[in-house]
Please model this.
Amino acid sequence: MKPLALTMGEPAGIGAEVAAKAWAALRGAGGPGFVFLGDAEAIQGVPVVRVDSPEQAPAAFAAGLPVLHTPLPARPRPGVLDPANAPAVIASIEAAVALAQAGRVGAVVTNPIQKSVLTGTGFPYPGHTEFLHALAPVAARPVMLLASEELRVVPVTIHESLRSAIARLTPELIVETARITHDGLVRDFGIARPRLAIAGLNPHAGEAGTMGREDIEIVAPAVAALQALGIDARGPLPPDTMFTAHARPRMDVAICLYHDQALIPIKTLDMDGGVNVTLGLSIIRTSPDHGTALDIAGRGVANPSSLLAALRLARSLAEHRSS
Model:
């Protein structure tokens, strides 16, 4: 298999540390192998092998962490943000996507970025997801899927106020999100007939309209439209019971209507093992489901579990897509 491309992420955060720890965990375990697109000088505590191309990474992986050197203009200081390094962070993402589009790496795994630093330098995207979709689009818009061993969730609306999210909900938006999710589960996860559980918006999914009519007027028509397309969709389901241990095995993904409805259950179940997957791209992209962790950067205590899960899932998705 081709190596994975791992971006540098925010230099003042834990990206380089978890990359080194992930390499140490994977080098004797059969991979998946990856190449780090970042500053070789930022890697501490493990041997580094500078490579000139991703094709050299598999042979180098046993000896050291393969690095496609992307020098930083300013020496990073743990926990201290420096806008001077923003162009290198962006360049690392662009290079990883270009390698994936050229078929030279199997997938892109992104270390967390500090969005406020990039925005302050004129970066026009709210975050990774929107930037990656601009670089490698397929669907009309990107869809964020969070995956763990016990649960997959997709929020229909993401980074906006709850008031704005509810106002923007339509049957069409739910159907579009669910269709992109369904196609991604078939193509990349190898699930022949995905089972979609569609969350209700109101308590008890509105309880026949006594707690609001949004579930009757918005969610139920979306579920009916999905079923008419031959998609195995159920709902609207009461959000307070659809994530129980009894309910989870009966679905392949939960389509949720706003950010916290999706992220609270998965982070409660598996904060360390959750993986962010972007659907609707021409490439495969995963990311650890945590932030830059500026508060613990440089202390050597960062947990690489989520990055390891992101690397392993990226390899699995690449295998499904290429089969």
Notes: The two ends are 12 Å apart (CA to CA). The chain has a mean pLDDT of 95.
